[in-house]
Write a structure and sequence with these properties.
Length: 239
């Protein structure tokens, strides 16, 4: 295919034609089976059907019940763990990795990393998911505010006379300098109550999770085979 964006659903228009061809062959084999006189020819027909049916049946069971089942299990867990109007879920995963409100059925704030196409044809275009992958920790600091240790260091560099000793001191400093300080967090998003990610990302943002007191609440199986940004387990951190 010459298309830059490919999905399995693009093949659906030719599925009826394939089913017609396969059905015609199966009907022919079933009709001719009763006409075959030798036992050997009948065994060949049974072996042929077994070769077609058994591998496909095993594939359907594995791919339908085991492989990449994590997103559905994740939304089931979130449906029970979240509360309407109170919970805030952040998905740090490749965009559209999980279902969304169609499964959670609650008025819960949720956000995922977007991947809009480059409609304006910008050079070296990066969507939000790509930008996040380049430096996950920095992206989190920009979106949700610096951690206390990072902000403390920045305040020292800015020439502040005293050295704050705790997070509340930083808050007072920010309030007093809200109009001009580059540390103002007025544009930051609300801190999520749940963070969902593949376990391959854990090492990259572990400092953020620790400093904001997130704990691992659920570890959900996803797939036996890792696929780039998607790994074997989905982790749900919560406060």
């Amino acid at each position: 295919s010459c298309l830059g964006h490919k999905e399995f659903r693009f093949l659906l228009p030719i599925l009826p034609l394939c089913l017609c061809i396969a059905g015609d062959l199966i009907a022919y084999e079933l009709t001719s089976y009763s006409k075959r006189k030798t036992q050997l020819s009948k065994y060949k027909s049974v072996a042929g059907f077994s070769f077609l049916i058994i591998p496909n049946l095993l594939s359907v069971l594995y791919l339908g019940l085991v492989h990449q089942r994590g997103p559905l299990d994740t939304m089931t867990v979130l449906q029970h763990d979240t509360q309407s109007h109170k919970s805030n879920v952040l998905f740090l995963m490749p965009c559209h990795s999980t279902p969304y409100y169609s499964h959670i059925h609650k008025n819960v704030t949720m956000r995922f990393l977007t991947c809009e196409p480059n409609l304006q044809q910008k050079e070296n275009y990066l969507d939000e998911a790509d930008i996040f992958e380049q430096d996950p920790l920095n992206w989190l600091h920009q979106e949700y505010g610096n951690t206390s240790s990072t902000l403390k260091e920045q305040v020292r560099v800015s020439g502040m006379n005293r050295d704050p000793v705790n997070t509340s001191d930083f808050g007072e400093y920010i309030k007093l300098n809200n109009s001009s300080s580059k540390f103002s967090q007025s544009t930051y998003n609300d801190m999520p109550s749940h963070i969902v990610l593949f376990d391959v990302l854990k090492v990259k943002i572990e400092n953020f999770l620790l400093e904001h007191h997130y704990q691992l609440c659920h570890e959900i199986f996803h797939a036996h085979i890792e696929d780039g940004r998607r790994s074997k387990y989905i982790l749900i951190y919560c406060k």
